[in-house]
Amino acid sequence: MDKKELFNQFVAFTTAVHQVTHELTQNVKIENITPVQYKILEYIKVSQPVTPTEISDCQHMSLPNTSRELRKLQERKLIKKIIDTEDRRKHYVCLTEDGEKIMEEAFACIDERFQQLIQHASKKDLEDISYALNILDEKVFNPNS
Fold first, then answer.
1. Which of 14, 43, 126, 143 is the most buried if burial means most Cβ atoms within 10 Å?
2. Could you tell me which of 73, 93, 76, 96 has the C-alpha nearest to residue 84?
3. pTM for this predicted structure
């Protein structure tokens, strides 16, 4: 396969991923949580512990905006900061018990929608999807892991 063609296929795939992600999460409502805060909580959930800089980079937000949103989430007791024991200037962010509970509820709603998407997939289709996701993760999204 031509590498340019593969690149175009990858761009189309990532665009579709963003669209499906939007559709799966668009109606997930958490009381008094903005969409930006939800995306931050989602990132923390799947990647914790993370630094504010990692959140800022992943969410395409300035560090001051990220810090402001993190402060709001900390005030609501959804996240907590953990000081690095080797470098006290550095800290990590992870979910509190309440934050974990909220994200489990959100993920349950998303899972329900996902199950609807794959309801007619055969066992072989599901195995193929799992294999493809593993290959993408290993070769494209986390090649140095």
1. 43
2. 93
3. 0.83
